[in-house]
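Side project, low priority. Logging it here so it doesn't get lost.
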Amino acid sequence: MHTFKKLFALVLSFMIISCKTDEKTYNQEINITPKPMELSVRDGKFTLKSNTIFVVKDEPVRRVADFFISKIQRSTGYSLLKQQDRPSSNYIDLSIVADLKVNDEGYTVDVAGDGISVKATTPQGIFYGLQTVMQLLPAEIESPDVVKISWTIPNVSIKDEPRFKYRGQHLDVCRHFVDVEHIKKQLDVMAMFKINKFHWHLTDDQGWRIESKKYPKLNSASTVRTESEGNIYGPYYYTHQQIREIVAYAGERFIEVIPEVELPGHAVAALSAYPEYSCTGGTFEVRNVWGVANDVFCAGNDATFAFLTDIIEEVIPLFRSDYFHIGGDECPKGRWEKCPKCQERIKKEKLKDEHELQSWFIRRIEKVLIQHNKKMIGWDEILEGGLAPSATVMSWRGEKGGLDAANMGHDAIMTPGGWLYLDHYQGDPKVEPVTIGGYTTLEKTYSYEPVPEGIDSDKAKHILGAQANVWTEYIYAPEQTEYMAYPRAIALAEVTWSRREQKDYRDFERRIANQLVRLDGHHINYHIPIPEQPGSSSGFIAFIDSATVELKTTRPVKIIYTTGMEEPAARNSKEYTAPLKFSESTVLKVRSVLPSGKMSVTRTIYLDKQTYAPATATEAASDMKVEYYRGKYFKASELEGKTPDEIEHVESMRKVKYRIPDYREVYDDDYCSVVLTGYFHVPENGIYCFSTAVDGLWIDGKLFIDNEGTVRKNVKSDKSIALAKGYHSVKIVRLGNIIGGWPSQWDAVSVIWKKADQQKFAELR
């Protein structure tokens, strides 16, 4: 008998240890995100069962309960019931308590062995309390399919409320459109992390995305554009019914949808349909390149304001928000300076200049919004020339706009590009998909503090919160918007909800492993760090004797690799633990692996053992030959046999050695290719690295870098070659077809190069 007891105890102990071992590492510890204001942990746990009862006494909470009952059923298979009376055990009790010491979005959660109590002063607070309960459960609770695991919750006591009332996420659908179902998916995830504002950027130069009943040409001419490659993009826009559907869907998740209709600038899409509201009278086409257009709404034409008033009055009934965003950013004044009507307006209204004309324009629109009980939001340019009386400023060009507005007594929302523009790179630009530029890691976004230094102590209350922005110039598919937004948007959620003194990036980084599994349940294509190399993540490494590859990631994850053509797999590939050394030509493939087992895309690095390529000349002229070819070209081969255009270099173009002027300094023409030929000097035998965004780079007559047909906003190619001392011939081809747009700078044809073991860069141009 004693032997049986000992054996039973041994088996039981083994089962307990096995259960703990089988628990996914990402489900260990408490992973609530955003981190709650107060949390204490007690011994014991509550287990969600198939017969757990939701206790709902207050009718306004019933819909909230139904929302979570439906979610829980998908992942557990449990059809949970509601009732008014609380049983003695196995319950989730939802109660509205008027005198609870939390704000309107706050809540308390108490978990004990017999049940869970969620209290708040509003249904929204109950909603957020239940989101926290969901985050106390294993991450698989967000699965769209039934998962057979134990649904346990640790016994805790939580008191929580948000630090800021504005916790926003923005999406630009003008440059690249996303459908209704994709937006709903984003709203689901926003709600999970208690983000409560969705800023919907609906009009711009590159597209008008709101159906108009009164101005039907907006639905046709303004919603479609011809890409520079010749493709037709569109027509894409949201019908009134679709907008109402999204607003209602967001409302069920306590998310306020804020529309943005851009004015007075970023208006080319609208002007393509109704050119009479411009300063010149047109004609216009929906803009197919990014950047800022010169054509804007005419401020001197009263018909412009009748048109905009009609649009605003058509849009307002579609949205429930108290706010209406009018843009107000990046409005060039050149057309107004030359427009007789605008100059007459300046004179009539006794304005000082075109900046005050913009302020006058916005104040006139503000009056329309006030008539409809709406609050105006604008980007920080609306400060220029004087701020409209009721305006809220959205500070994007750093923090100064928000700081100035708050110190003036105006509300401000902080969204500075350096921290909160999620279209920036989140890893090495050499390995990440092309973006508009910038470099903003998850840690940098998390480090942001919305209340800026230098604010008057009594004005800090005017900082309503912060918002993360996703602009889509270089984001071509809905899945890529997710890749750019997550997990950085989760960092924004904690920045705006949790207390400043609670922030702990390493703990947040740990909790992210759990939250990414929750995103898997919503099929979110989030960013997984791609293995990089310190200094320069070259995909092609030349060497003479041997080469060493060191790898890192932007946050701690496991790295695996293979040598050869086999794809790295989580279970049978080698784990990277130290720099890798190679003495023969090799194909190296690397991936990152999350605690969940999900992997990054594969990155391939080619290592090529070479001998020094001999010099092709003993001397060469210091200047390179420059040739311009007008017209649209997509391949360097198309230039063969063509006669270059003759140009005259003005004196200012000769002041910088090797300066190659932007074609727009030479021609008033949309398309022009540039070809450079000549020699560059290699000071000593060595391995040299080259980086460029040009279409083609030839060294010693051989095509070395080929970027034809790629999006070329930023340098992507990084390749090395063994070169002997002396002069080597070079040809650089930059095609004029505006795939992704030419940079405005004259160094659009530069090639950056350096000796592999040196930090000093030189330029060929």
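Brief comment: The chain has four domains: 23-160, 166-520, 540-609, 625-764.
Revisit when time allows.
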